[in-house]
C-alpha cells in the first residue's frame, strides 16, 4: 500500500457520503439503498454452459461467455462512466452504483460452481477506460501462491465484463492459458512465455464476461483504434481461504447495501494503480470522505 500524503480538501465532504450526491454526478446510473441480486441470467447459464465453463476453467484457467448481457446495462455504465469522468471523478466510482453489482449478482450460479458457496467479492475491483493509443494492464499474474484446488478449480478469480465492443485491436484481454504454461501452478514467480504462439487473444463484444484464474499470465493489449475500450472487473475468492481479504461482499447474502459499497470503495481506492500510475489524490480524498475510517469499521 502506498503512503498517502496530505489529501486535498473537498469542498463538501459530508455531501460525498450521500446517495443524492452520487446520483447527481451520474444520472445515467441508479443508486439504491440496497441491490437485491436476481437470477436474470438463469436462461443463459444452463447446466451445459456451467459444465463447459468449469471444464475450461480447470484446463486453461480462463473462459469467455460472449454477449452474456444485452446492451442496456453496458450502455448505462458507459454513459455513467463518461458522466463521472466529465466531472473529474475517477471511473472506479462507477462501482458504487447498482448496475455493476446487479450484473455480478446474476453470476452467482456460475461463481458458486467455480468457487463454492459463500464466495466473496473482495478488494481490488477495477474499472478500466483505455482510450485510443493507450493500453490495458501489462502482462502479469495477480496471485503467486496456491491458486487451485485438487480439481484445478480456482481459489480466486476475476470476472471481467466488457462495456464496449473489445475486438483484438481495441486492447482486448490476452492470456497464456494454464495448459500452455509450464510454470502454472507451482512456479508463479515466473512470467516467461516460452512459445508466443500459445498466447490466446480474447476479443469480445460489449456485455461479455471473461473469467480467469488470477494466477494465469494475462494482460490488456494496446488500443490501436480511435475508440475507447471500457470494462470493469471484480475479484472474487472462495470462502475460508488463507489470507482472506476484507471488507468482502458475500454473494450468497443475496444483496449489497450502499453502506457496504461505500466501505468497499473506501478500502479499494487508495491502493489503486493503473500501469504504475497511482489514482489521483483527489479521488483518494473522495473515497475517504465517502466512508470515513470509523464508519468503515462498523459497516
Ligand atoms: O483490463 C485490462 O486491461 C487488464 C485487466 C487485468 O489485468 C485484471 O483485471 O487483472
Overall description:
The protein has one domain (15-298): q2cbj1_9rhob like domain (Jelly Rolls, Sandwich). Helices cover 27% and strands 20% of the residues. The chain has helices at 19-25, 47-60, 71-86, 98-106, 108-115, 258-268, 281-290, 293-298, and strands spanning 34-36, 62-65, 120-130, 156-162, 173-176, 200-202, 209-213, 217-220, 229-237, 249-250, 255-257, 273-274, 277-278. The chain starts with 18 loop residues before the first helix and ends with a helix. Bound molecules: 2-oxoglutaric acid. The site of 2-oxoglutaric acid has 11 residues, from strand 3, strand 4, strand 8 and strand 9.
Q: Can you tell me the CATH superfamily?
A: q2cbj1_9rhob like domain
Alpha carbon gyration radius: 18 Å
CATH class: Mainly Beta
Corresponding CATH architecture: Sandwich
**What fold name goes in the CATH topology slot?**
Jelly Rolls
Please mark out the parts with pLDDT under 50 across 5 or more consecutive residues, or reply none: none
Largest sheet: 6 strands, antiparallel
Helix percent band? 25-40%
Report the average pLDDT across residues.
94
- The number of domains is 1
Oligomeric organization of the protein chains:
single chain
> Topology as H/E string?
HEHEHHHEEEEEEEEEHEEHH
The end-to-end distance, rounded to whole angstroms, is 22 Å
Q: Order of strands across the biggest sheet?
A: 2-7-4-9-3-10
Count of beta strands: 13
Please report the number of helical segments. Answer: 8
Characteristic key phrases:
single chain, 299 residues, alpha+beta, Jelly Rolls, six-stranded antiparallel sheet, three-stranded antiparallel sheet, globular, binds 2-oxoglutaric acid
